Structures are given as C-alpha cells and as structure tokens.
Amino acid sequence: MNFGFLLFPDVEELDFAGPWEIVAMWSKHCNGPQQRLLIGQTVNPLQCANGMLVTPHCSFADCPPLDYLLIPGGQGTRKEVNNRALLGFVRQQAANCRQVLSVCTGAFILQAAGLLANKQATTYWGSLDRLRQFPDVTVIEERFVRDGNIWTSAGVSAGIDLTLALIADQAGEEIAGKVQLGAEYYPLAVRYGIAHLAPEAPAYLRPGK
Amino acid sequence: MNFGFLLFPDVEELDFAGPWEIVAMWSKHCNGPQQRLLIGQTVNPLQCANGMLVTPHCSFADCPPLDYLLIPGGQGTRKEVNNRALLGFVRQQAANCRQVLSVCTGAFILQAAGLLANKQATTYWGSLDRLRQFPDVTVIEERFVRDGNIWTSAGVSAGIDLTLALIADQAGEEIAGKVQLGAEYYPLAVRYGIAHLAPEAPAYLRPGK
After folding, report:
1. CA gap A114, A128 in Å, rounded
2. CA A35, CA A5: separation in Å to the nearest integer?
3. ipTM confidence score
4. CA A9 to CA A40: how far, in whole Å?
5. How many CA atoms lie within 13 A of B162 on its CB side?
6. What is the pLDDT averaged over residues B56-71?
7. Contact B25, B183 (CB under 8 A)
8. In chain A, which among 82-141 make CB contacts under 8 A with chain B?
9. What CATH number did the domain enclosing B108 receive?
10. How many CB atoms lie within 10 A of CB A101?
11. What digits encode the pLDDT tens for the residues B118-131?
12. In sequence order, what are the beta bridge partners of B39?
C-alpha cells in the first residue's frame, strides 16, 4: 500500500505535515502503508504558504497508482482549482483510491475535480460560506466529515484528527491508539481568549456541542 | 523580531512543522515575529526522519541573531548531540535569545549545549528515562515545562501546545486565541484504544491528572 500527499505552491504547511507525521507513525510502527509520497506537478522544490521549501518525491507523471490520497489546503488552492493538470491527476488517482482525504481548503480542489458532488463535506471555518455556494455539497460544521470514501476536515490542524480517524477505520482503534501514542498526540484542552466564541467560529465549537 | 527553527538530518517532521505553522499565524495575523527561519548547518536540502525533504533558509554561518530559537527532536538528535558546530551555534544564539524552546528529544540537544543544567524539563515519553540520567536535570512529566526562558515539551505534536503557550506568555491570551482560531487548533479529545494506559505512557495521561 502507498499513501500520497498532494503538494502545490502556497500549500499550508501543517495541512500536509500533520497527516504526514501520523501516516509515518502508522507505516513505521503499525504496519501502515509501506510507501509515503509527497507529489508535485514537477519534482522542483515548492514554496509553501508560510515560506517552507519542500521538494516532492515524485511528479504527477511518475506517481504510481495510490491507495490513499490526501489533498491539503492553503492559499494556493485558489489558483489550483483552475489547474487542469492537477485536477486531472486528482480525478484519475481518486478513481482507484481506497480513500481520498482533504484538509482545510483542500476541499475546494476535491470539489473542482468533481469529487464532492452530492456529498457531505467540511472545510476551514473561514471558507465554510464559500463551500456552501456549491449547491450539490452539503456543508457540515464538524471537525471532520466522512461520506463514503471521501473524508474532509476542518482547517489546518484538523488534518491530524482526520488521519487518526482514518487509521482507526482502516486498521482498527488499537492501531490508531499506538499511532497516537507514537506522536504523543494528547493535546491540552485549553482554549485561549475568546476568539473561538466569535460568530464565524465553526459550529462544533459552540457551547453544548 | 525573528524566530529560528533548527534543522538537521533525521529531524522529526511535526516537531518543527507544528510550531512553524503556529508561529506563522502569529506573524501574519497578530503582529508576531516578522521573520521566520529554518536553519541548517548548511543550506543544502535535508532529509527528515520520515523522508520529507526540506531546504533551510539559512546556515549557521549566515543566521542573524535570533529572538526565539526552537530545537526539534527526532532520531537525528542522537548524532547531533555530538556535533560541536551545532552545539556551538545553539549555545551562542541561546545566550541572547528571549526564549529558547525544545520539542521532543530536542531536549537532548539543549542538554548537550549546557542549557538544561539545574533546570526542570521534559521530553518524548519514550526518552524520559534517558533524560533522567543527567543528575542536574529535573524531569517533569507534563505536556510542556517552562523554567525561566527555557521551554521544553513532550513528544512530536506537543510542540503545538508549547508554541501556543509561548505566544500566550509573550503576547497575551487574546493573541494566542486568535492564533489558535487561525490554525483551527481545537483537537478532538479522543484517545483511541488503550496504548495511553501503558505504564510507559507519560504521567500527565494518568487517570485523575
């Protein structure tokens, strides 16, 4: 099995680096996918949204058929939703993947590739209204949403929760627990200040949820 | 102000990518450090512990004086604790930094550079006993530990909690809350399976803590 992570200019760093780490723990310690690939349109180094420079392992042209494909978000998605080569790659790979995932505004790439038609999905809190403009997408304000083999998550750090949930589904809760311990992913429950109480904050943060 | 992140071969990806994202949100949206730098011994691309290829922005030789320095962990620390050039760089920069941070086994680099002498500190759960072997370090099994201007965190994902706590301290809780919303860092409270109940799991996970 292999697990591919799409890269493009101005991709948000944690959107892919969080899931990358979690999948690596799955691979190394718990019999997860043997191969993990960062995939670019070419193998030239890419500048991410916050300035990190990352070199893809393979290009669209030399990427093997993938078992899992994760699409991160970031400012770059605004441009990539019009990139026919990228959308063609996603569509072609997704047709044979076991599971396809997006983090944050990566959902807009799934949508542009036709993969969210008549699906429930979510995205970054600041882009929920923009996703609602597609009448065939049902937007759900949860940490992540699964609809068949399409998994979408809320913003940035939510990709970590998404990937652990995927592993629990695909390999079982015991394996997911070992991966969670491996990454020591037991976050503090702190919510600083009052930003999370703003009306535009996602519904899953509201008191009582 | 600027914020530097040390890189070295076999550095653990999320150890630096999590804090990198959080500091970027601080910079971009909340008047945080204007400059963020990934720093290598040279500017050649580095292979991280799980295979990600990252190119540093500057080398030890051309790095400006830093206001903040974060030392990630990973398998590579086993070698780097004997790298005199790296330890010299850390020691020299730390002397003038406002705050110095480590994530995971990055604590062993701080120790080797002499920065944990007579300090309280923590590290990855799997390396706590190894850190206890230094008699002048008091090991505390918390998510993160602050002692003066030295901040150390538990493993891998704990660097995100560490960096938010740093921002709350340096810029206030309201700013930390805006950064938290920016990164949508409101993790699920799920603990999968029973791995976190193992005797070697860190004390902060024990029931009642």
Report:
1. 18
2. 11
3. 0.96
4. 9
5. 38
6. 98
7. yes
8. 104, 124-125
9. 3.40.50.880
10. 28
11. 999 999 999 999 99
12. B6, B58
Any idea which residue has 């995100």 for tokens? B160
Closest CA to A20 of B188, B157, B184: B157
Q: Is A63 a catalytic residue?
A: no
- Domain limits for position B26: 2-205
Both tokens of B199, joined, read: 């005797």
Confirm or reject contact between B180 and chain A (CB < 8 A): yes
Give the number of domains in chain B.
1
Burial of B126 (0-12, 13-18, 19+ CB in 10 A): middle
| Residue B209 scores a pLDDT above 80 | no
Q: How confident is the model at residue B206 (pLDDT cuts 50, 70, 90)?
A: confident
Q: Which two tokens stand for residue B170?
A: 């340096």
Question: CA dist B33 to A112, A204, B38, B45, B126, Å?
Answer: 36, 31, 14, 24, 33
Q: What is the mean pLDDT of residues B169-176?
A: 97
Q: Do A192 and B164 touch (CB under 8 A)?
A: yes
pLDDT at B205 over 90: yes
Contact list, A49 vs chain B (CB under 8 Å): 24
CA distance B137 to B125: 16
Regions of chain A short of the pLDDT cut 50: none
Q: CB contact, 8 Å: B182 with chain A?
A: yes
Token pair, residue A15, equals 């959107």
Taking an 8 Å cut-off on Cβ atoms, the answer to whether B190 and A161 are in contact is yes
- One-letter amino acid at B196 equals H
Alpha-carbon torsion (B137, B139, B144, B146), positive or negative: negative
For tokens 């970031």, what's the residue? A74
CB proximity B207 to A under 8 Å? no
Nearest to B48 by CA among B3, B14, B4: B14
Contact B21 A20 (CB under 8 A): no
Q: Is the pLDDT of residue B9 over 90?
A: yes
